[in-house]
Amino acid sequence: MENLNAQELLQTIKENGNPDKAPLHKKYHKSELIFYGWDTPDLRKLAVSAAGQIKDNDTLFIFAAFLWASEIWEARMLCEYILAKRLDLFMEEDFTRFYKWLRDCDGWAVTDMLAYPVLGEYLRRFPQFVPQVDRWKEDDHLWVRRAGLVRFITSVRHKEPWPENMEPILRYHLEEKDFFIRKAIGWVLREWSRLHPQRVLQFCERHKNKMAALSYREALRNIKK
User: Fold this and answer.
1) C-alpha torsion sign, points 121, 215, 132, 33
2) For residues 51 and 82, is the Cβ–Cβ distance under 8 A?
3) Residue 218 CA to chain centroid, in angstroms?
């Protein structure tokens, strides 16, 4: 029954997309996945309806795995929206699923939703995996490395203290040349400036000579000097 429901969700995506928008979305995201031209608010509404049917961890990941395997962009985003709605069903053994999916990502949007809030919330419940995620900074996969940065934004939403493990990871990435890593550094610091503007300002001034202009500019966007 669970798999049938997942099939119905997939069919809904295929039958109710916007063929005029699909190529535009594909071009924007620079992804090899299949696109059906859905707008984000409509996908989120579909996720709310689907998440309400899911009552246990097994069903959650039957839905998620089926949608992910479709290689349809909207289905993968829907998978992540559903996961974000049912964080209460996560179990310790789910960690390996997230890493596997991240290595299957080919763009920032799917990566970022999986990192924040999904992975970030998972780590709040199962902090024993934080050291393992910290080591993702050395991973050979771009989107795994980006996820290892973006997950820190989750803590901002919970108004948590400045994470001591964040600065070493940020410093490690400062000289990376990839645009998406540089952008993530700035984004993470900008979000943390909501709670700790002085810490962000001090970090940026201390490492200004190593930071890419993009990272520096993004980090300080909301700070009035």
Assistant:
1) positive
2) yes
3) 18
Domains and CATH numbers, the chain: 1-89 (1.25.10.90), 94-225 (1.25.10.90)
Q: What is the pLDDT of residue 225?
A: 60
Give the model confidence (pLDDT) of 72-102 as tens digits: 999 999 999 999 999 999 999 999 999 999 9
186 is written with which tokens? 């700035």
CA distance 37 to 19: 6
Tokens matching residue 118: 């999904």
Q: Rounded to whole angstroms, how far apart are CA atoms 211 and 123?
A: 28
45-61 average pLDDT score: 94
Give bridge partners of residue 72 from the DSSP assignment: 34
Q: What is the pLDDT of residues 132-190, one digit of tens each?
A: 999 999 999 999 999 999 999 999 999 999 999 999 999 999 989 999 999 999 999 99
User: What radius of gyration, in Å, describes the C-alpha atoms of the chain?
Assistant: 18
The answer to whether 72 and 13 are in contact (CB under 8 A) is: yes
What is the band of 5 on the pLDDT scale with cuts at 50, 70, 90? Answer: confident
